[in-house]
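Title: Prediction job returns without error message
Component: structure pipeline
Severity: low
Priority: P3
Assignee: unassigned

Description:
Job completed but the reporter wants confirmation the result is attached to the right record. Sequence as submitted:
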Amino acid sequence: MDADGQPREFTADDLSLLCTGCYEVTRARNTTIPAPLRSMQLEVSEAEFGELARQACDRCQVRQDAVMRAWPLVESGAWFYDGLTRTIRFFEDPAAPGVVADVTVVGSFSQRSHTWLWSWANSEYSASERAKVEPLRTFGEVRGIERFHRGQWPAEEIDGWEVTQIAADLYGADAIYRAPMDHLFVFMLLNRFRSYHAS
């Protein structure tokens, strides 16, 4: 677009060479663009972000409902998070069969400080765990969405749900979950649900 917002043709002056590393970073920044953002300028307005969040919520709810129908224990049972295997187990009785799913921790909401902290900015997680959600920071940088590229920010619990639903939409997660841990609500993406049999 030109200064007046009109389409313009690209010329040779618009091209530049990239080293392999810079190319990979640039490719990552432009690989996953949600449908509501594909026709937008780089900077996303509040209205556009609201539409992105609404569509992500709708799609997330469809997948969430399917999981609850297939695995009702996820909604009604107790749970145990295993940080070593990065899985969460749902059960009625620890000795009885249950349901297990793979976990990607997106971030956490603190009821004390009323802030959101992305897991990519949280040193409590391993480098590999942080790397799994690092693309969300890049996504926020490219689209000018401060809530995604700022590691910690003032928030309410609803904000945690909102950004987690968008993350679930971007990653194609099967479901999301909010796990209370002390003063934190830890928001997770869940995938690969399967039956679990206690040994």
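Comment from assignee: result matches the submitted record. The helical segments are 20-31, 46-70, 73-76, 127-143, 146-149, 157-171.
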